[in-house]
Amino acid sequence: MIMSCSRLTNNNLQPPSYTCTPKFTTSFLPIRLRLRLSPQFPCYKNSALAITNVLKTADSPNISSDLESIFSNSKPTILVSEKLGEGGLDLLRTFANVDCSYNLSPEELCSKISMCDALIVRSGTKVTRQVFEASKGRLKVVGRAGVGIDNVDLQAATEFGCLVVNAPTANTIAAAEHGIALLSAMARNVSQADASIKAGKWERSKYVGVSMVGKTLAIMGFGKVGSEVARRAKGLGMHVVAHDPYAPADRARAIGVELVSFDEAVSTADFISLHMPLTPTTSKVFNDVTFAKMKKGVRIINVARGGVIDEDALLRALDTGLVAQAALDVFCEEPPKDSKLVLHENVIATPHLGASTKEAQEGVAVEIAEAVVGALQGELSATAVNAPMVPAEVLSELAPYVALAEKLGRLAVQLVGGGTGIKSVKVVYRSGRDPNDLDTRLLRAMITKGIIEPISDSIINLVNADFIAKQKGLRISEERVFSTSSSGSPIDSIQVQISNVKSKFESALSENEEISVEGRVKYGKPHLSRVGSFDVDVSLEGNLILCRQVDQPGMIGTVGGILGENNVNVSFMSVGRNFRRKKAIMAICVDEEPDKDTLDKIGHIPAIEEFVFLNL
Ligand SMILES: NC(=O)C1=CN([C@@H]2O[C@H](COP(=O)(O)OP(=O)(O)OC[C@H]3O[C@@H](n4cnc5c(N)ncnc54)[C@H](O)[C@@H]3O)[C@@H](O)[C@H]2O)C=CC1
Ligand SMILES: O=C(O)C(=O)COP(=O)(O)O
């Protein structure tokens, strides 16, 4: 006879140990609460998902205080660490306490961050691993009011379950216009001539420029900014080629741009304009070797990131005249200190002004404020950088399955016998949908959450589910089985199987000796439909008692009677059997947690062969 009363957590994917203590734990209660819609945010239908998937952070020590801030009237706190447009600030203030603290030192940022639910930055704030560590689990969203997220440690954010969102569209035109401004200013020596005339000189022959018309411009990185620069350069009469290993050729063709290889781009261009992100692959991609491939006298514009250029190599190339001129808006270190590059007579420089137009700053401020508020309220942002993007319509369709997935994971893990580690979980989705139309990433994340949370201190969300599963050595495989009985719903059933483990409730083992629980959504609610090889049908609410007994009359009444006498309310009950008068499984959902004596009494009913109590 098996009885579970309290949960002892561990970190090694060992199932929970159960001991008979008088009082059942309520440690699962917040998890149930997290699945409810917050009454404060009625307009956000998907906040249940959000609260579960997005807001919770890994290893958060203060689940209850998080919940307080979500479910009570207290507002979240958003730290804005760099200047943000008023429109965005106004929007943030309607929802949160907004702390605008600019020019914080790394230490000051770390000391403030544990009091903040979200942080909004531009390019000047380094959001390092230390920041996530210092947040002690409270920081749920980092909003980058702009495009480049190279100043945010994405790996650390993911490990800590913190969502990172950016504002990828509102400054595109500003950056492109700045690129064109630098291109023209460089070609016609505008900055140098301006400084000269202000110094009282009149140097007309010194500042003879070069024409742009008919020249070849190579755009490196044909994304949003790169293609807008291309469009404008075409208007200046330039011949434009682009290099971007990931850009679709038809988009380039549509604006009359030829996509070429890296070498062809750099070796044929008179002007090279950089528009790729700074990543490990693009770091210092413009170096001595690449400069050597360029046409002598080439001119370079960088409105992307300083780090894509080896600045020392550029200085050498300028000194030899291999590169005639450079126009730089971005630098490896910002602001640059004692930079020979900035002081070079053939360099014009601006202090990272690409996105700095009034219009762009208002735009990114509103764009990021909407994304951060949405994320805090539970929406999965379309601009999430470190979480799978799930379109809103998919999200709302999958909402009841998300709850089902988490509960099945939670049930399955509690059925594992103590002492056995879990290594391999298989999820089978039965659906009439084409597999390509079924996005199961969210469901897999929730099953992972359901499995791992009861047996470790980690708090899992959509951001970190895969990472934590991998870290714990848990392999989750998925199978989609075509089912003809589909009634238009995206999924007929979800089955969670845990293999190579013992079960504390033997009847939960399938013919293949795997723990197997299966569920479906009925009337919009998660239901348990099968345990091992027994069919059952109970709504997954409250707590669950599973009993295996000899199939005989009076069992429902006997068990129901014991629960009733002890003031435990039964919400659902279902009996499944394989053969008449042989073995049957009784699944009983109860609102309250029965005390030890009540469970003892059930265990002592002679016909009951095994039973288990499970928190949902
Ligand atoms: N100076 C400033 O104030 C601003 C700078 N930026 C910088 O410009 C970059 C581009 O911005 P968007 O066009 O909005 O981003 P985007 O994501 O639309 O475009 C980036 C393009 O670079 C391409 N790419 C990636 N790796 C590449 C490689 N190795 N070689 C060539 N192309 C590669 C991508 O496929 C993508 O098409 C941002 O990452 C940011 O660093 C953006 C806005 C303002
Ligand atoms: O959006 C970007 O990537 C930018 O580089 C703009 O940076 P900023 O927000 O002006 O510090």
UniProtKB/TrEMBL annotation:
InterPro entries: ACT-like_dom_sf, ACT_dom, ASB_dom_sf, D-isomer_2_OHA_DH_cat_dom, D-isomer_DH_CS, D-isomer_DH_CS1, D-isomer_DH_NAD-bd, NAD(P)-bd_dom_sf. Gene3D superfamilies: 3.30.70.260, D-3-phosphoglycerate dehydrogenase, domain 3, NAD(P)-binding Rossmann-like Domain. CDD domains: ACT_3PGDH-xct, PGDH_4. Its EC number is 1.1.1.95. Residues 544-616 form the ACT domain. It catalyses: (2R)-3-phosphoglycerate + NAD(+) = 3-phosphooxypyruvate + NADH + H(+). Pathway: Amino-acid biosynthesis; L-serine biosynthesis; L-serine from 3-phospho-D-glycerate: step 1/3. Its main location: plastid. Pfam families: 2-Hacid_dh (PF00389), 2-Hacid_dh_C (PF02826), ACT (PF01842), PGDH_inter (PF19304). It is found in: Plastid, Chloroplast. It comes from the Eukaryota. One of its GO terms (cellular component) is chloroplast stroma. Keywords: Amino-acid biosynthesis, Chloroplast, NAD, Oxidoreductase, Plastid, Serine biosynthesis, Transit peptide. GO terms for biological process: L-serine biosynthetic process. Transmembrane segments: none annotated. One of its GO terms (molecular function) is NAD binding. Belongs to the D-isomer specific 2-hydroxyacid dehydrogenase family. NCBIfam families: PGDH (TIGR01327). PANTHER family: D-3-PHOSPHOGLYCERATE DEHYDROGENASE 2, CHLOROPLASTIC, FORMATE DEHYDROGENASE 1. This is D-3-phosphoglycerate dehydrogenase.
